[in-house]
Fold these 3 entries.
Entry 1:
Amino acid sequence: MEYDIIIGLEIHVQTKTESKMFCSCKTGYFQEEPNTHVCPVCLGLPGALPVPNKRAIELCILMGLATNCTINKEIHFDRKHYFYPDLPKGYQISQYKEPICSNGSLTLPSQNKIEIERIHQEEDVAKSTHHTESSTGKEYSLIDYNKSGVPLIEIVTKPCIRSARDAKDFATAIRQICRYLNISDADMEKGQMRCEPNISIQEKGKWEYKDGKILSIGDYKLNAKVEIKNIGSITAVEKSIAYEVKRLIEEKENGKEIMQQTRGWNADKGITEFQRSKETADDYRYMPDPDIPIIEISKQDIDRISKELVELPEQKIERYTREYGVSEYASKVISSSKQNSEYFEKLFNKLKESLDEKEAGIQAANWLMGTVYAIGKDVDINDLALLIVKFKEGKITKGIAEELLKDCLENNKDISDELNKFEKSSSENANKLEDIIKEVIKNNQKAIQDYKDGKTSTMGYLVGQVMQTTKGSANPNEARNILEKLLK
Ligand code: ZN
Ligand code: MN
């Protein structure tokens, strides 16, 4: 049997605000003492009232604008009920029927367009850890409410993703947008971004995708979908989906029914594991939160937030390749981080003062991806531009430029001083080299005669003689040029 893979992604992102979603507790809790960033609101004490965080809502709207969503004119908060110790109120404040952002899209590097169903605002829950007492073997759990109430946005795609690779690329694109727009650092290791794919396999030709839904054709019975939790990295998004697809196909081929369920990704073993059968929306008893009034969003609000939009990687790749002639590969690498692309653009602008635009683009990309990455330190843009121009004028080699840069960085020297010294000593060396070459010519009269008789291959031998006399310190190209000049 042949199957199609159907994937939807839910991505939670902790947004970068000073304080929590509904109280004034500070958010930066990483490596802080447990339960030190708490108050009656985020501990869920009776009678405490939530006050929505304006900045958090702006960041949610900003993410919506960056992903071509429609922004709702009213903001509604709802209660999503379930019981767990990490949720002391017994409900999470979230959004149900009316999310802040809806119907967006994002185009991946593969040109596949991913449809975004919604982006809604909610709050994070506390962190629980499970332990075993070593002396008695007794199990116990600890809970830290520092994370409780941290602003969280949830990005939900339609089930329109057709490969593990596209799922990975989408998660990567979302992370890039978060970082470019300073919505979040989206550090998955710190739990600032969490991905939960839902996956199903359906027989080819037996289903259709319509209005964001998967529908069966004829009397075909759709297979249930499986959701994967605890994914801690972007690579694990791709790996866990690939694993799960293979498992689902095996289940079907062994004649088993696929049950709707939630599974966890075990990164150490590289497998997914059964956790629980999945709740449906009805189980959460959603209701409007009576503690929070409806908030209106004006056109002025949207205009103000739009000013925070900057050019995103997708657009940068397009501009670098089309306008600057940079290769697609290099454009992708450079624009994958905001820092790199800022460096590239500054270097490009500096080089444009001396080189033509295409040359400036290509050189900036080459040197950024070669020299700057290799040195791995902050290379001053003016210093680097100076060296690149000297290189283009044929005054120095790339190797020399790198040595000069390293020397100046390590020993805190001035690049133009060092460059002057180098040029002075290399012109002295050139004079010396010319003397050596005259000597070589004098001592190799037979080879010279052969060369003059048209046996041009003798040149290689003569250059070899120069290299031998200088113990390999001469530049062979330079030696060849001087030889040709003198023999004319
Ligand atoms: Zn609080
Ligand atoms: Mn959620």
Entry 2:
Amino acid sequence: MRMYDVIMKKRQGGTLTPEEIRYFVEGYTKGEIPDYQVSALMMAIWFRKMTPEETLELTLAMRDSGDVLSLDAIRGIKVDKHSTGGVGDKTSLALTPMVAACGVPVAKMSGRGLGHTGGTIDKLESFPGFSTSISTQQFIDNVNRIGIAIMGQTADLAPADKKLYALRDVTATVDNMSLIASSIMSKKLAAGADAIVLDVKTGSGAFMKAEEDSFALAREMLSIGRMAGRQMAAVVSDMDQPLGRAVGNALEVREAIETLMGKGPDDFTELCMTLGTQMLLLGQVAQTESEARAKLEESITSGSALRKLAEFVEAQGGDPAAACDPSLLVTAPLVTEIPAPCDGYVRKIACDEIGICSLMLGGGRENKESEIDLSVGMVLHKKVGDAVKKGDSLATMYASDAAKAEAATKRFIAAYEIGEEKVPARKLIRGIL
Ligand code: URA
């Protein structure tokens, strides 16, 4: 087989065979096929698209390019959750202890973030001493003992995807439905769960800005997962403004803790309930949506979800006291209010711009080597639909550097559209598939 012929076939709109897909994925992973030929193929795929069968084969080939984790040693139905990401998305931090407290084993691999805030692992490191560098055996033992463990993604999980994603990033070929779906699902399938709940975001702070594209991506990933023999569900949720109120690593951990105390923002609490319901149904610890919801609510009112978070933090070397007392988390030295520039109603918040403000404060990574400042970020007091008076605080900003705070404040104010006419609050849950 020749790579030239594979590129030509796709350029002309042909359908690649499973052998051709395995050939280029394996050859590229081993370094036998050069970047320039795979770039050309990615561009041909971008224009010509892939059939569902080709997309599944690409997913499986990338899954099989490295370690495929077996979670068979863990009792029960293992349910994973994946979010396509967004601003203020701290869902895993609150949701995983909730579902674990309800009896669904959580064995999750998470990543670090490249972008406006850290990933789940960075956020968890706000607990002094916490580590996700645990062995696979300890990971399995912790889940069997306390029902929850989160480990860092191993370097050898879907290495083909790692190479291909980096290449797509610099060749303008990221935004193709089949390529995104296969990239995400290859990692999820390699991580070994029996069932997967997807949280596909839609709006200005999401990968998919248009709602119909988010639904299409959700359907594509559901179909891959089901063809690969997994139980699947997906929720499409709003990311046209930050989720909850906190943006920034330790601030998001604090908000997740408050949510487990029953004092979280309504939208974030509702998203945890909606995703948790799907996880409990797939995990077969509830038979109906109302039964699942009641169990999740009980995990909050009884304190069992918060206790589960403390147990989990302690099992991975962190200070469990911080799980019940967020004042023990790192705090930033400079705290200022961001004033509203005029009277009116918040009509829009450019979600991606709020993410950039967090990045400017040092809360995210510009590149893989950047150090994250876990303490910085913002807590929003006004969201879409809220009335504001000139000088009201739009948000509290937490910073370590005055010059960065000043620049981020200007950008933050510019991200808010305030007008005379009231607009309705945004609908959070757009659909469940
Ligand atoms: N996230 C991934 O893991 N892969 C993509 O292609 C896009 C988002």
Entry 3:
Amino acid sequence: MTIFVTGGAGYIGSHVIVELLAQGYDVVAADNFSNSKQEAVWRTRQVSGADFPFYEMDICDVDGVATILTAHEIDCVIHLAGLKAVGESVSKPLEYYSNNIVSTISLLTAMEECAVRKLIFSSSATVYSGDNEMPLSEESRTGNCTNPYGWTKFMCEQIMTDFSKAHKDFSVVLLRYFNPIGAHSSGMIGEDPQDIPNNLMPYIAQTAVGQLPSLSIFGDDYDTPDGTGVRDYIHVSDLATGHAAAVDYLDTQSGVSIFNLGTGKGASVLELVTAFEKAAGLKIPKKIVARRPGDLAVCYASTEKAKRELGWEAKKTIEDACADTWRWQQNKQRDSTHV
Ligand code: NAD
Ligand code: UFG
């Protein structure tokens, strides 16, 4: 089976490709490098010990995508290409709506043209409304997104659902990721933010190597055991095995299926910082600041449906993720000082 991975040079895409190749799938990937580097493709090939065709291409290019789908006889697409910075989406909403929605419509157009009928989509826990009880199940209420990025995921889910209703032989799995963290255990691939990171784990890692002066903890007065925000941090390699499970699942299912990819357990900001300090053997400079607008106190997944229907569950711990992130961050640091 041959799988086309869009956004294949990105953080999650590179780990998904490693897992698919390890499981014996053929992979073809594309990315426009708007938030990644050519080097990530080279590193993914190194880690896998295998080659795969890669195209520098914008997924909004319907003809370009259709050419790939036909030339490689693609069976299934994993669509990870997209812009993902929540704050940036607030200041550049049109860029986010345009890129994330047009790329999804273009991909579906090309798939329809080439009769490719299986799709897995990178959605997010951000599609759930903020007023749900925890844990969030796939049945929890969606909508009331707090930023344009979240709305693009919500709208793409709707577009794919409508497309599937109109094409009975089309199957889609919507994967709602919780908080992906960590890096490949080789330390060869990981998250490589182009600007100052928005997310907690890359911020901790860059503070640990002195690239950033200090971590700001956004609030310690939440109704949580230590007062800091609680999230469901999932190791990116577990997330990758979740995609492989979804590929298997599509062999026997049709229509739209939705799965949370999380661990089912929450960890606080302070717990993650402490785990990282232990993994790295150093102290992270940190200060408590005001809450970040729009943040929830607690967010974690129900993982029952994924366990039951995909036969998948996360295996790695936040300690594993911290050790792997630290290895990756140190390697990056070494490379940047020696090039
Ligand atoms: P990433 O930015 O590392 O990877 C996305 C890749 O898509 C980048 O390499 C970028 O260059 C590429 N891209 C963007 N627009 C493109 C286009 N029009 N054509 C071709 N390539 C394009 O981000 P990631 O963390 O790997 O996320 C992958 C997907 O998962 C995204 O859709 C993201 O919204 C979603 N997601 C991520 C998280 C997270 O916390 N990392 C959480 C939930 C969902
Ligand atoms: N935090 C800090 N300091 C920082 C960054 C984050 O204290 O510098 C805290 C936040 O307040 C929150 C926790 O760390 O309590 C996690 O924050 P992240 O920004 O890492 O993650 P979010 O849960 O806010 O959101 C992320 C992605 C969204 C995605 C969501 C669910 O950014 O795109 O996970 O998958 F939708």
